[in-house]
Amino acid sequence: MPQPIRVLLVDDQPLLRTGFRMILEAESGIAVVGESGDGEAAVSHTRALQPDVVLMDIRMPHMDGVQATRAITGSTRETPPRVLVLTTFDLDEYVVEALRAGASGFLLKDVPADQLVAAIRTVASGDSVVAPNITRRLLDMFAARLPASNAPVPEGLEHLTSREREVLIMVARGMSNAEIATELVVSETTVKTHVGNLLTKLDLRDRVQAAIYAYESGLVTPGSL
């Protein structure tokens, strides 16, 4: 039998943690290994419990979800846990910073149970779960006015082929692999290969970070797509 997906719940509201635990513990293949009430505890519990996925609230005392996400995804583990950000508002500007910090996507706190479960499975498999239309809305609304990242924009666009650059622009538009395949009249397998190649060349974790990179590198600009 495959090992269950180990999940750490992080939220400063105990009732929400209880609700998420009840949903997840009813699912086969998912195990809730712990709960944390703030960012500092989340970082400590992640080291101790070694979860595969951290369900992370944004606004918490002591250390917020952005800082905790940065600490967790930058850990020395060979494969750091994946972080799913939780937010009350779908246009919370902190979410963009959390994605920059290494989160694999975000969910609204009122997400339906089946979507929560599916998102955790998707993230655990190595993909991201930010809905395409929300990815674009977030980037369009906040990329122009959020403080720039302290790290310089990574070089690498010159290493992409023209087709890989084209695919990167479509990823920034929030298009799925199937939609890109239809647009380019190629197979989904070919699109996956292009996405994998550009992620490797740009040293990016997933398509969410690829979308952010496309904006921060100047390949696309807010409102231009």
TrEMBL record:
Alphabetical UniProt keywords: DNA-binding, Phosphoprotein, Transcription, Transcription regulation
Superkingdom of origin organism: Bacteria
Modified residues (4-aspartylphosphate): 57
Residue ranges of every copy of the HTH luxR-type domain listed in the record: 153-218
Domain Response regulatory: 6-124
Biological process annotations from GO: phosphorelay signal transduction system; regulation of DNA-templated transcription
Molecular-function GO terms, alphabetical: DNA binding
SUPFAM superfamilies according to UniProt: C-terminal effector domain of the bipartite response regulators, CheY-like
Matching CDD domains: LuxR_C_like, REC_NarL-like
The protein's name: DNA-binding response regulator
Native species: Phytoactinopolyspora halophila
